[in-house]
Amino acid sequence: MARREDFDKIELHLVRVLHTVISERSVSRAALRLRTTQPAVSAQLRRLRELTGDPLLVRAGPGMAPTATALALLQPATDLLQQAERLFSGHARTQAFDAASADAVFRVAASDYLDPLFLPALVTRLKRQAPSVRIELRALSREFDYRRSLAAGDVDLVIGNWLEPPAELHLGRLLVDEVVCLVAADHPAVRRRDWSVAQYLECEHVAPTELHPGAIGVIDQHLVARGLTRTIVVRSAHFGLIPLMVAGSLLVLTTGQLFCSRYTGVLPVRIVRCPVEFPPLAYYQLWHDLTHRSPAQRWLREQVREAAQGLRSAASPALPVPPAPPAPPRRRARH
Hints:
Helices cover about 40% and strands about 20% of the residues. By secondary structure, it is α/β, with parallel strands linked by helices. A five-stranded mixed β-sheet has the order 4-3-5-12-6, with helices on one face. It has a five-stranded mixed β-sheet with strand order 9-8-10-7-11. It has a two-stranded antiparallel sheet with strand order 1-2.
């Protein structure tokens, strides 16, 4: 490990390089994130190897993999960067974010359950007000650990719906939506005035792929809590394609009314009331304390909130929208 005289020469940027190289598992990707050159990152990686006495990254098939020492250093590096952010947060608060001239990179992970128009509207809004920013969008999938990615600084925001969002994260509620069913125009449920709970459960259902093995979504969480079980015959990682599947089959999609309303005018599908009573779906943006005080991130969260609110005003709901439920109690302030 580093001698005292070497330790005194370690600057914060070198810690950020260490964190980024280990997180990205690639010198070239780390260079992109750090907005520097690959030779510069390679030189800093050599220095880090000398300081730690460990290769940190080793060849693994077509890519690179972190060593055990590198993985052990990742959390301390994260903690150190977070402490540095807090140390200088008072200064950061005095600096305004100039969107028109900013060249920041915003990394957002989002589900496409909210509305197929949401991410396009958000990107359009960001690029109109901050033309030089870069935007990286990631999907919420079973391979993506969003809590770890937020804590590591790999993403700035996560947008989705949860019955109980993780308590360690800050949250901002974007909107609430009524749970309805989307079915084909000739589905028997369209003709039935008294579609029963039993008939609903007996249908063939389509649902998104679980976010992690063994997980169940908010719809099935509620059903299980009521002692009910539906038959899911199709699981799809591509939520935006599900309405096309519904249009040509007897599949039933149970989700938010806002999402479903985008397809009733372009596909032979209908929105019908769900015979099971569900609480409204609540959509949130979540972020870590690491970015909580950043002026740029505050501005980003404001744009996300405005984009989400604009969806509701632009929509033509086929069904009434329920009142917003109270937000879950939080230990952290919302901004």
